């Protein structure tokens, strides 16, 4: 009879309190953060800075796991197959929006296989030119473009930030531009410096040293407002320079596997929101040429809506860059 009463009591408690009481509050053991690119790169640096600030918020160690390959797809796929319990997270950038258009046999769905947790930093790009090209004002630059039999533009390979910028530029300019792909930003920059190609879009952090040295010339930045307070503070925006393209940044977001519990999503999202207001974290990102995001994209719903829009945007540009 005692065993029966105990069993009934336990069953009643389970019924009233629900199954959640049987589990420890999240998180109760270390978290893995997958970086789908090699160690030592810009995203690896960002992941380690992010983890250092998330650890005090979540009170658990965070292990960085670099799983590079296939342009980031291998790491993303491994995160897709992780348990949706919040203990495996993914850090990725604009790749999540461009991958569906770049790979018809993609083994993951950015919207269906993941729960967005927040976009928290982004990097502007700057359009730069080899020496000798008139970039002092938009009229001279556009006159130069129309006078050339061919205008060439370097990029760091399909799917890179410079590739996306070039594709977007080509879709909006009346002048045909010859895209020249390279295996990385370094070789592309070398040929721009030597005058082998005319133009290139690059992350501001990469381009600023060459601009300061006078080796390349800044034309315009890809954000809505000038980058006041930086080396590029006097560089006009694309719109101001007469190039009608929508703002373009390389943005970085955090993800969990699909079907992660809402309470876990809220906890991680709240921790991320705290991190982006941390003065040390903000300075680290500014020093790396990144802007911290505090608008609606920082929230999970805002992240999802923005990702949906970016997938559509880049799908149209990549599939028909001349449109």
UniProtKB/TrEMBL annotation:
InterPro entries from the UniProt entry: BUG, Bug_dom1
Family: Belongs to the UPF0065 (bug) family.
Species this protein is from: Bordetella genomosp. 11
Keyword Signal found: yes
Key words, A-Z: Signal
Signal peptide: 1-24
Pfam families: TctC (PF03401)
Protein's recorded name: ABC transporter substrate-binding protein
Top-rank taxon: Bacteria
PANTHER family with a match to the protein in the record: BLR1237 PROTEIN (PTHR42928:SF5), TRICARBOXYLATE-BINDING PROTEIN (PTHR42928)
């Amino acid at each position: 009879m005692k065993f029966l009463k105990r069993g009934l009591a336990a069953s009643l408690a389970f019924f009233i309190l629900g199954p959640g009481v049987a589990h420890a509050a999240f998180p109760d053991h270390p978290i893995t953060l997958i970086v789908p690119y090699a160690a030592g790169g810009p995203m690896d640096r960002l992941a380690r800075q992010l983890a250092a600030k998330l650890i005090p918020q979540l009170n658990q160690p965070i292990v960085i796991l670099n799983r590079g390959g296939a342009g980031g797809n291998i790491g993303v796929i491994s995160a897709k197959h992780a348990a949706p319990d919040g203990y495996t997270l993914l850090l990725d950038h604009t790749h999540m929006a461009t991958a569906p258009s770049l790979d018809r046999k993609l083994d993951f769905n950015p919207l269906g296989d993941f729960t967005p947790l927040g976009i928290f930093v982004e990097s502007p790009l700057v359009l730069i030119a080899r020496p000798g090209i008139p970039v002092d004002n938009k009229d001279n630059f556009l006159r130069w473009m129309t006078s050339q039999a061919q205008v060439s533009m370097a990029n760091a390979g399909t799917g890179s930030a410079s590739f996306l910028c070039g594709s977007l530029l080509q879709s909006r300019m009346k002048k045909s531009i010859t895209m020249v792909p390279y295996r990385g930003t370094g070789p592309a920059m070398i040929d721009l410096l030597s005058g082998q190609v005319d133009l290139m879009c690059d992350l501001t952090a990469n381009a600023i040293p060459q601009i300061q040295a006078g080796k390349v010339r800044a034309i315009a930045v890809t954000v809505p407002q000038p980058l006041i307070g930086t080396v590029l503070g006097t560089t006009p925006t694309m719109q101001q320079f007469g190039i009608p393209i929508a703002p373009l940044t390389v943005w970085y977001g955090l993800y969990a596997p699909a079907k992660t519990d809402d309470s876990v999503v809220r906890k991680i999202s709240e921790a991320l929101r705290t991190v982006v207001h941390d003065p040390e974290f903000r300075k680290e990102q500014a020093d790396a040429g990144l802007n911290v995001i505090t608008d609606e994209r920082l929230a999970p719903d805002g992240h999802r809506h923005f990702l949906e829009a970016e997938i559509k945007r880049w799908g149209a540009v990549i599939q028909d860059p001349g449109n």
